[in-house]
C-alpha cells in the first residue's frame, strides 16, 4: 500500500463518527456479523462509519468516499457515510411516531412526505436531535425499539456490501441519490437503453403497465428502436453491457445481503420465535421507510429540477405532458448501477416474509388487518399477528407506490420510438399519464383484504 | 431545547436581538397564515411555513409567552395533521410548564400531548398520559382538566371493549364537572356515556337522565349526527326502562319526560 493510501486510511480512521447512537448501532451490527460467522468468511473485514464533514478534500476525492456506503474488496473494507445513516435515522424516527402504518402522517399526502424531506434536508442533525429528544416523552410499549430498527437497517446495508466482498465485486455505492446540482439526462439513447433495462426488471417481477406491453416485447418496434439506439451510440456496448453487468453484480450482492438477514432471523428463531418475529417486523419497518423516503427524496429533487415549483401528482402530470424530453430526464431518477431502489426493497421484504412462511397471518388468516390489543390475555399471540400484518401492509403499499416509477420507466423506454412516430406524423400528440399520490396508494391498500404469497392479492 | 442552549442559539442570531416578543409572535402568526393560505390554494410547502412559525417561537424572551404560544401552535398543528411539529412544540411547552411551576398549564398540555398521540394511533401511550393527567389535576384541584382527561381516557378504554371501566370513568368526569363546569367536556362526556350504555344495553335510567340534561341544557350545541345517536339510544333505553317498570303508564310517562319524542320530532324538543 502506498504511503498516500496509508495517510488516507489514517485519516479515515480518525474521521470515524463520534455519534453515540450510530456507534452503538454499528457495534451491534458487528456483533451480529461475527455471530453469523461472516468475519470468518471475509478475513480482516473492517467496517468504517465515517463522518466525512471533517474530512480533507483529498479523502473526499478518494476511493474511500461515498454518499451512502460501499465495499472495497482488495482491502476487505466497508465504508458507510454517517450522514447517510443520520438522515435515514431521522426518517425512521419520524415514521415511528405513529404506532401503526395507517396512522403515519407522511402517508396523508405527497405534501407531507415532501415536508419531511425538506425538514431533514434543511438541517439533518438539528432535526434528528429534536426527534431523538422526543423519545423522552414518546415512551412507547412493545415493538417500537428504534435502536433495534436502526440496527436492522444498518445490518441491511452492511449485508449488501458483504455480498460485494463475498463475490469480489466492488466500488459501486449502495445507492445513488439524485443530486441537486447534477444535470438531468439529455441523451435519448442513454435514457432509452437504461430505462428499457429497468422496464425489463419491473416486468420480471410482475410490475407491468397495461397498454404498454410492447415495451417489454423483444421484437416490438419499441425494443427494435432501443437496439438501433445502441448501435448508433459509439459507446453503446459500454452503456448497455455496463448496465447489464452492474445489475448482475448488484443483484448478487442484494441476494447475499438478504440471505444474511434471513439467516439472522433463523438464528433468532431457534432461540425465541417471539424475538425473531419482533426483529422481522423492525427489519421490514426500516426497509420500508428507507425505500419510501429515498424515492420521495429523489422525486423531490427531480421535481425541483424540471419545474419552478414543487410538483404534486396533478402538476407532475401536466409537467410531463409538456415535452417528450421530460421522459428522457426521468432516466436520472433511476440511479447508475442498481435496479430501482423501491424494487430492491420490495424484493428484499418479500424474501424475508416468504422465508418465514409459517407465520400465522400468511399461513392461516384471511385478512391482513389485525387490531392490536393491550389486554394481558393472549398478548404475545396478538402482537405477533399484528407485527406480521403490519409487515404485509408495508410490503403491499410499496408494491402499489412503485406505480409512478413503473410508468416513468415504461414511458421512457418507449420514448425513442415515440419520437420517431412524432417525426413521421410531423406533429406531437399530447400524451397524458396520471400519477398516483401516496394517499391514493394508501386508499388502494385499504381495499386489500388478504395476501398469500404466490397468489393474487385479494381485493 | 433547555434554557441554556436556547440562549446560546439566540445569541448566534444577532438580528433577532432587535425583535420584541410581540414582533416575534406576529412573525410566527404570519408564517402560519402563509402556510394556511397555501393549503387552501392547494399549493405545496405549507409544512415549511409551519416549521418556520415554530422555530420563531424559540426566540421569545418571556418564558410564559413562549409557553402559551407553543401550547397554542401545538394544538393548531395537531388539528392540521402535522403531528411531528405538534409533538416538538408540546414537548417544549411541557418543559416550560415544569420550569415555571404552572400546574394548570401542565395539565392542559398533557391533555394535548395525549390528543396528539390519539391522532397518531398511539392509544396505549395516550391512555398512560391521560391517567397521569387525571392524577396531577386532582392533586391540584383542577377539576375541569381532570374531567377532560378522564373522558378522553374513557373513550380509549371503551374502544378496547372495556365498557364498564369506561362508564366508571365517565361518571367520575361528571362528578368533576359538577365542581368545575365546562360545557364542551360535559356534552362529550354525556354523549359518550349514553353511547357506551346503549351498546351494552344497561342502566337505562342513566341514559334517560343524561339525555334529559343534554337536550334540556345543550340542545343548540349538539351536532345533528350526535343528536340522532342520542335519540336512538334514548328510545331504546325508554323501552327497556318501561319494560322493567310495568307500573308506569308508558304514554303519559313519555309525554311528561320527552314530549318531543311522542310527537316524533327527534331532537326538536323546544
Would you summarize the structure shown here?
The complex is a heterodimer of chains A (459) and B (270). With 459 residues, chain A is mainly alpha-helical. Helices cover 62% and strands 3% of the residues of chain A.
Characteristic key phrases:
heterodimer; A: 459 residues; mainly alpha; 62% helix; B: 270 residues; elongated
Explained architecture:
The complex is a heterodimer of chains A (459) and B (270). Chain A has 459 residues and is mainly alpha-helical. Chain A contains 19 helices and three strands. Chain A has helices spanning 3-14, 20-35, 38-41, 57-60, 82-95, 110-122, 124-134, 146-167, 188-204, 221-232, 236-271, 273-306, 313-321, 326-329, 341-355, 360-364, 379-401, 403-425, 438-446; strands spanning 46-50, 69-72, 77-81. In chain A, strands 1-3-2 form a three-stranded mixed beta sheet. In chain A, α5 (82-95) crosses α12 (273-306) and α11 runs antiparallel to α12. The termini of chain A are far apart. Chain B is mainly alpha-helical and 270 residues long. Chain B is 77% helix and 0% strand. Chain B has 14 helices and no strands. Chain B starts with a helix and ends in an 8-residue tail after the last helix. Chain A binds chain B through residues 94, 97-100, 102-103, 105, 108, 110-112, 114-116, 118-119, 130-131, 133-134, 136-141, 309-312, 373-375, and chain B through 43-48, 51, 81-84, 87-88, 90-91, 94, 113, 117, 119-125, 128, 160.
Structural class of chain A: mainly alpha
Tell me the total number of β-strands of chain B: 0
- Specify Rg of chain B, calculated over alpha carbons: 23 Å
Q: Gap between N and C termini of chain B, in Å?
A: 54 Å
Main β-sheet, spatial strand arrangement of chain A: 1-3-2
Largest sheet of chain B: none
Unreliable runs of chain A: none
Q: Structural class of the helices, strands and pairings of chain B?
A: mainly alpha
Q: Indicate the overall shape of chain B.
A: elongated
The percent of residues in helical segments of chain B reads over 70%
Regarding quaternary structure, what we see is heterodimer
Q: What share of residues are in beta strands of chain B?
A: under 5%
Strand tally of chain A: 3
Classify the beta-strand content of chain A into a percent band: under 5%
Order of helices and strands of chain A: HHHEHEEHHHHHHHHHHHHHHH
What best-fitting shape of chain A do the alpha-carbon axes yield?
Answer: globular
By DSSP (H or I, 4+ residues per run), the number of helices of chain B equals 14
User: Over the alpha carbons, how many angstroms does the gyration radius of chain A reach?
Assistant: 22 Å
Helix and strand string of chain B, N-terminal first?
HHHHHHHHHHHHHH
Amino acid at each position: 500500500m502506498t504511503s498516500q493510501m496509508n495517510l488516507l486510511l489514517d485519516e479515515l480512521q480518525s474521521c470515524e463518527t463520534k455519534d453515540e447512537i450510530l456507534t452503538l448501532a454499528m457495534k451491534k451490527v458487528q456483533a451480529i456479523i461475527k455471530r453469523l460467522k461472516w468475519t470468518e468468511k471475509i478475513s480482516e473485514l473492517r467496517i468504517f462509519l465515517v463522518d466525512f464533514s471533517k474530512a480533507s478534500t483529498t479523502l473526499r476525492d478518494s476511493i474511500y468516499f461515498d454518499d451512502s456506503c460501499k465495499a472495497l474488496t482488495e482491502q476487505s473494507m466497508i465504508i458507510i457515510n454517517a450522514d447517510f445513516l443520520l438522515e435515514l435515522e431521522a426518517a425512521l424516527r419520524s415514521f415511528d411516531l405513529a404506532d401503526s402504518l395507517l396512522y403515519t402522517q407522511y402517508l396523508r399526502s405527497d405534501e407531507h412526505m415532501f415536508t419531511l424531506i425538506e425538514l431533514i434536508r434543511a438541517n439533518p442533525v438539528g432535526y434528528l436531535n429534536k426527534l431523538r429528544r422526543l423519545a423522552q416523552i414518546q415512551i412507547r410499549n412493545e415493538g417500537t425499539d428504534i435502536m433495534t430498527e436502526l440496527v436492522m437497517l444498518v445490518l441491511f446495508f452492511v449485508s449488501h456490501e458483504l455480498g460485494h466482498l463475498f463475490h469480489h465485486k466492488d466500488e459501486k455505492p449502495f445507492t445513488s441519490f439524485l443530486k441537486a446540482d447534477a444535470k438531468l439526462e439529455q441523451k435519448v439513447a442513454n435514457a432509452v437503453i437504461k430505462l428499457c433495462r429497468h422496464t425489463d426488471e419491473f416486468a420480471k417481477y410482475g410490475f407491468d403497465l397495461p397498454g404498454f406491453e410492447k415495451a417489454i416485447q423483444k421484437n416490438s418496434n419499441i425494443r427494435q428502436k432501443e437496439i438501433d439506439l445502441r448501435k448508433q451510440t459509439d459507446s453503446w456496448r459500454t452503456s448497455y453491457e455496463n448496465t447489464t453487468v452492474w445489475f448482475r453484480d448488484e443483484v448478487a450482492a442484494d441476494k447475499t445481503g438478504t440471505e444474511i438477514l434471513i439467516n439472522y432471523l433463523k438464528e433468532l428463531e431457534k432461540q425465541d420465535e417471539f424475538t425473531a418475529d419482533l426483529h422481522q417486523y423492525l427489519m421490514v419497518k426500516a426497509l420500508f421507510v428507507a425505500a419510501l423516503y429515498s424515492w420521495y427524496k429523489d422525486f423531490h429533487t427531480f421535481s425541483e429540477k424540471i419545474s419552478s415549483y414543487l410538483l404534486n401528482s396533478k402538476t407532475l402530470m401536466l409537467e410531463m405532458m409538456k415535452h417528450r424530453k421530460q421522459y428522457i430526464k426521468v432516466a436520472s431518477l433511476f440511479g447508475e448501477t442498481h435496479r430501482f431502489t423501491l424494487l430492491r426493497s420490495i424484493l428484499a421484504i418479500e424474501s424475508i416474509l416468504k422465508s418465514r412462511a409459517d407465520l400465522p397471518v400468511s399461513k392461516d388468516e384471511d385478512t391482513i388487518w389485525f387490531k392490536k390489543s393491550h389486554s394481558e390475555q393472549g398478548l404475545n399471540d396478538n402482537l405477533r399477528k399484528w407485527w406480521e400484518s403490519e409487515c404485509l401492509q408495508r410490503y403491499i403499499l410499496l408494491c402499489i407506490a412503485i406505480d409512478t416509477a413503473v410508468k416513468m420507466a415504461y414511458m421512457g423506454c418507449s420514448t425513442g420510438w415515440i419520437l420517431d412516430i412524432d417525426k413521421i406524423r410531423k406533429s406531437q400528440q399530447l400524451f397524458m399519464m396520471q400519477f398516483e399520490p401516496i394517499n391514493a396508494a394508501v386508499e388502494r391498500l385499504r381495499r386489500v383484504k388478504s395476501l398469500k404469497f404466490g397468489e393474487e392479492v385479494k381485493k | 431545547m433547555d434554557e441554556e442552549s436556547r440562549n446560546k442559539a439566540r445569541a448566534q442570531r444577532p438580528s433577532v436581538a432587535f425583535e420584541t416578543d410581540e414582533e416575534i409572535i406576529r412573525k410566527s402568526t404570519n408564517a402560519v397564515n402563509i402556510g394556511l393560505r397555501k393549503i387552501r390554494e392547494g399549493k405545496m410547502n405549507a409544512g415549511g411555513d409551519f416549521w418556520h412559525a415554530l422555530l420563531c417561537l424559540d426566540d421569545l424572551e418571556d418564558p410564559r409567552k413562549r409557553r402559551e404560544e407553543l401550547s397554542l401552535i401545538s394544538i393548531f398543528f395537531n388539528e392540521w395533521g402535522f403531528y411531528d411539529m405538534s409533538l416538538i412544540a408540546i414537548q417544549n411547552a411541557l418543559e416550560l410548564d415544569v420550569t415555571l411551576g404552572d400546574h394548570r398549564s401542565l395539565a392542559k398540555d398533557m391533555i394535548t400531548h395525549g390528543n396528539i398521540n390519539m391522532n397518531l394511533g398511539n392509544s396505549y401511550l395516550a391512555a398512560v398520559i391521560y391517567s397521569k393527567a387525571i392524577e396531577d389535576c386532582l392533586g391540584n384541584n383542577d377539576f375541569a382538566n381532570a374531567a377532560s382527561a378522564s373522558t378522553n381516557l374513557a373513550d380509549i378504554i371503551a374502544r378496547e371493549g372495556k365498557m364498564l371501566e369506561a362508564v366508571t370513568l365517565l361518571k367520575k368526569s361528571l362528578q368533576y364537572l359538577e365542581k368545575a363546569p365546562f360545557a364542551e367536556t360535559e356534552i362529550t362526556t354525556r354523549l359518550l356515556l349514553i353511547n357506551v350504555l346503549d351498546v351494552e344495553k344497561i342502566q337505562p335510567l342513566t341514559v334517560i337522565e343524561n339525555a334529559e340534561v343534554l337536550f334540556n341544557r345543550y340542545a343548540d350545541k349538539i351536532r345533528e349526527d350526535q343528536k340522532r345517536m342520542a335519540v336512538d339510544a334514548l328510545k331504546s333505553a325508554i323501552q327497556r326502562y318501561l319494560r322493567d317498570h310495568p307500573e308506569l303508564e308508558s304514554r303519559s310517562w313519555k309525554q311528561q319526560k320527552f314530549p318531543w319524542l311522542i310527537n316524533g320530532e327527534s331532537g326538536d324538543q323546544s
